[in-house]
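Journal club side-thread
Mid-discussion, someone asked how the predicted structure for our own chain would compare to the paper's figures. Pasting it here so we can look after the session.
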Amino acid sequence: MLPDNTTHTIQPGSVWIPSGDKCLKFECVKIMDQFIPIEAKTVCPDFHPEDCINGTEVIAPDGCCHVCIPIYKPCNVTKGKVYLNSNGCKSANEVEVTTCGGSCGTYAMYSLEANMMERSCTCCREVSTTKKEVEMICPDGSKFNHSYIHINKCGCQRTECVTPEATQVTRSRRRRR
């Protein structure tokens, strides 16, 4: 029974995608003597067209999510102002908080010489920081100083490329008769 109270018959081993929702798919799996219906819903990542190169926005091949070629944004410091909260107490004034964000050169490519994938991974992270203090005021009127880290500069730093499993390409040879 589907959410719209309709019924659809699916043969074991086949997949059915409702025409009204390309992000939803149903599959029938036979386990021993039981037929088990499996429902899978694709959750699309947040999509912001303003972060795309003009004219590159498309629907993914499966018809579910919007995708595009993102605008390159270099690794940089982003600033914002917020009140800090700690143990029920609040900063007396708004505090400038900083984050690192943006793109760094990361790639993976096959090396014929090494017969494996070669990877170079970098991440956008803090390069220079300062410890700052802010006065906190509690509901009972008491005050204390709270220290926090302020990012002065961000940069791309090399890091280890972690993969779920080693991916080494094996050579296959044809047999001659």
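Post-session note: Residues 14 and 27 are 6 Å apart (CA to CA).
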